[in-house]
Amino acid sequence: MKVSFVTNRVASKDAVGNNHIYRAAYLLRQGHEVCIYCNDYADIPPGFENRIRRVTLADLSGARQSLSSASHLALAHFTSSDLFIYDYALYYDLVDSIAWPKDGVTLFDYHGVTPPELWGTEQGVEPLRRGVEATALVHYADYAIVHSDYAKEELVSRTGFDPDRIFRLGYPIHLGRFYPAPKDEELARFWGLEDGPVLLFVGRMAGNKRLEVLVEALKIVNKTIPNAKLLLVGENKAPPYDLFSRRVQLLAKEYGLEQSVIFTGKVPDDLLPRYYNLADVYVTSSLHECFCVPIVEAMACGKPVVGADTTAIPFTLGDAGLTFPPEDAEELADKVVQVLTSEELYARLVAKGLERAQMFSLERYEQQLDCVLQQVSRGSSRGDDTPEARLRLASSKSFQHELQLLAERAPLSIPYRVRSDKPLIGPLVVWVRNMLTVHLKVFYIDRIVERQGLFNSLLVNVLRALVQHLDRLTSRLERAAAAMERQEQVERALAQVEEELSALRREVAELKGKGR
């Protein structure tokens, strides 16, 4: 079987990237022909050097004439594939090619898109808006993959995709890397964690993670356990994560916790298990997760977990951790104190966590993936709902939802108003605006262009849906016309039979008359 993976970026240092590599490696071991198409890649594991292709949308379409021989081979693999798997965590241009395959089966692997309203700032929020809206591309797929029950609910509610065509498949965790180990004393000294319990969070310093709640909880925990510290591991330098990090730092300073809230920044992937084993308890106050891999990694390292009771966190935790109401710092602190002061509770959560982590082992993942592939391979026998119909109107509700999105994005201009009522300031602002058009380009003109692009993308999707719908109506009309023609033929035949019967009746009547 030929398999084409399409993704934005291949990297072996995040949940989506690891999932991608593990899945492709499994298919290769099964003897399938695998090629991965992406915009960019990094940290390529051995054996994948000739399997990953950096391409553009034009490359995949065959529009570029100056393709190398290797690129021609890659394009030939794509166009003749039996299975297409598209990763989706945010919109990227290559995902538009999901509309092109005419043969084979297409899978849409939905990793979840953070709701823009949870982001907490306008900086960096536009990709989330576009990511949410472009999730409608799932209707080009035959099936979808999600990684939790919550992710399935989110995908269905956002797009109206048929829930019976969605498979749940957890993320694989390399338990050979994540396991209980003694605390690294050198690393502990480096970060000043020799004394007192450590609360750990791993992830991007993003707005939806609500790290301020962790700081507030630490302040309360310190009333009972004065030397407890909070270790925040993850990206905090690149925009917009630097903005959220500064907010947390300011809050920590306000609470007098600047020495107790420690940012490590992004750490090397091979060192990550050592950071988990520095901790005494793992905490997360995130408001949106479609799985949350760090929870499983923490459990695999023998750490109790306390997480917000929202989205996919309860699913991933199962009964192996404690939850608290979202954004309730007092409840979070109370649960942390319970874990750190009760040896019995601590030991029970550790044991349950280690057991729970086994559910997401590579072996278990491969078994589940194999079941999914076996089921989708039978997907060609689904009546009128065939793989050739790449864009489906799953329901009138879904179609109306796309139309509503189109209507909301239709106004392309961004109002620019002079807000000052001072007689000199207003004209001065207008003059500066006119003189600094180039400088305003990034904040004003580019936004208009971006919204125009998004509007066009949505318009194309809706028009394609209309074309597909019209095709279906045309097919139905043709079948109805054919049926009507057959009915007319039957009626003409019946009329002819009726005429012949009438003639026979007249002849019989005449014969009877002569017999008298």
Question: Layout of SSEs?
Answer:
Layout (H helix, E strand, L loop, with lengths): L1 E9 L4 H15 L3 E9 L10 E3 L2 H5 L7 H11 L3 E6 L16 E6 L15 H8 L9 E4 L2 H11 L6 E3 L16 H6 L7 E5 L8 H14 L4 E5 L7 H14 L6 E5 L6 H5 L4 E4 L8 H8 L4 E4 L4 H5 L4 E3 L4 H13 L1 H15 L4 H15 L19 H14 L15 H11 L1 H79 L1
Parallel strand pairs: 1-2, 1-4, 2-3, 4-5, 5-6, 6-7, 8-9, 8-11, 9-10, 11-12, 12-13
Helix pairs in contact: 7-8, 7-12, 10-13, 15-17
Could you explain how this protein is built, in words?
The structure is a single chain. Helices cover 48% and strands 13% of the residues. The chain folds into 3 domains: 2-171 and 364-392, 3-Layer(aba) Sandwich (Rossmann fold); 185-360, Rossmann fold, CATH 3.40.50.2000; 402-498. It has helices spanning 15-29, 57-61, 69-79, 126-133, 149-159, 185-190, 211-224, 241-254, 272-276, 293-300, 313-317, 329-341, 343-357, 362-376, 396-409, 425-435, 437-515; strands at 2-10, 33-41, 52-54, 83-88, 105-110, 143-146, 166-168, 198-202, 229-233, 261-265, 281-284, 305-308, 322-324. With 516 residues, it is an alpha/beta fold. It has a 7-stranded parallel β-sheet, with helices on both faces. The longest helix has 79 residues, at 437-515.
